[in-house]
Amino acid sequence: QVQLVESGGGLVQSGGSLRLSCAASGTIVSIDFWGWYRQTPGKQRELVAVTFSGNGANYADSAKGRFTISRDNAKNTLYLQMNSLKPEDTAVYYCYADLQGASGRFRSWGQGTQVTVSS
After folding, report:
1. CA torsion sign, 6 to 12 to 37 to 71?
2. Where do the DSSP E strands lie in the chain?
3. Cα separation values, 23 from 1, 6, 50, 54, 117, Å
4. pLDDT per residue over 19-46, tens digit each?
5. How far is 29 from 106, CA to CA, in rounded Å?
6. I want to staple 68 with a disulfide (CB 3.0 to 4.6 A). Which of 10, 81, 97, 116 is the partner?
7. Is the pLDDT of residue 75 over 80?
8. How confident is the model at residue 102 (pLDDT cuts 50, 70, 90)?
9. What is the pLDDT of residue 112?
């Protein structure tokens, strides 16, 4: 069984910064696709940024230049550094992983962490 636990959300003023973390627990062989999504009420969950096992990364246009995704494979932890935050970044942010565990392949979601940006 693999679990993802996010932390680091909160309330911040427009222009501020937050750093989200996603800790993966369990017996993990590799995390091939590991990313951050966000969702606001009444809207579909959208990809914010993703990193691959080969160290590549992709960003949504809304995140480019402001957000940086990184991972610490030794700690099985994913990060999202968010700078220059805007009110439209307000959402619940979810961590998602497509990974190889000891007993098979898993696709897991975290429970989400709220980010609120005030104007």
Report:
1. negative
2. 3-7, 10-13, 18-25, 28-39, 46-52, 57-59, 67-72, 77-82, 91-101, 104-109, 113-118
3. 14, 6, 15, 19, 23
4. 999 999 999 999 999 999 999 999 999 9
5. 11
6. 81
7. yes
8. confident
9. 97
Taking the CB of residue 57, how many other CB atoms lie within 10 A of it?
A: 15
Residue 85 DSSP code: -
Question: CA 46 to CA 36: how far, in whole Å?
Answer: 9
Backbone angles phi, psi at 89, to 5 degrees: -85, -5
d(CA 45, CA 84): 22
Residue 37 contacts residue 46 (beta carbons within 8 Å): yes
* pLDDT for 92: 98
- Strands 57-59 and 3-7, by their bridges, are unpaired
Mean pLDDT on 53-68: 93
